[in-house]
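Intended use. Records like the one below are meant for learning the mapping from a protein sequence to its folded structure. Do not use them to infer anything beyond what is encoded.
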Amino acid sequence: MDRKDYLKIEIGDPYEAGSIIPLTEDKTLSIGRVNPRLMLDVALQSPYVSRNHAEITTENRKVYVRDLGSKHGTELNGAALTPYLKNELKDGDRITLAKGAVCFTFAGGAEADWDMTMELSMPAGGLARMEEGLYIIPERRQVVIDNHHVILSGKHTDLLMLLHARKNQAVSYDEIKIYVWPERLGHGGQAVPDVGNDEITALVYRLRKKLNNYGDKIISLPRYGYMLELEEGKRSPQT
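Structure written out for the chain above:
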């Protein structure tokens, strides 16, 4: 098996503990708080994580972590990082964001077991080996249906990522409004953006159509909201 560098998530909603993020040469992995305006590689839900919090870069077979001037800081093995300075990672290093709100372990040159990736990601070139089905890859904001990438708009992606993070759980209309339309919260102190339920219904309708045969995995919950129904223990629904 090829030896790979990767991050293992210990703590980091909405990702499952033990999930793996592969690292590739000459690729920068962006880490921050989920935001519809940003295309982050690892989008986290903790309110203590900054929008652009940190990044992991791989250069000349070495891997570095860099804090991007985050409000609550980044630590490497318990030591606070100086903002914007690169720090080389060694096998077994622990990276924490916002005083432990998020925690990664770095595995350098380890034999990566791609079956451990759970909800997160797939190996390079692995798409051709996938079984047919619906695959949602949150840290890349990607959707694959029957071995074909599906292009979604920002709002469709935001909604699907929220439902996926809470899969098999009811998600209320208010939660959807806050997550998908944060720009409409305004400055009046209101707790929920000014978005009508009919606007959510229209967005769900269009998302279901884009998911083709898997659109019926988005279940309507009358007078409450929606739920993404996925089989437990699987990365994707099977036909």
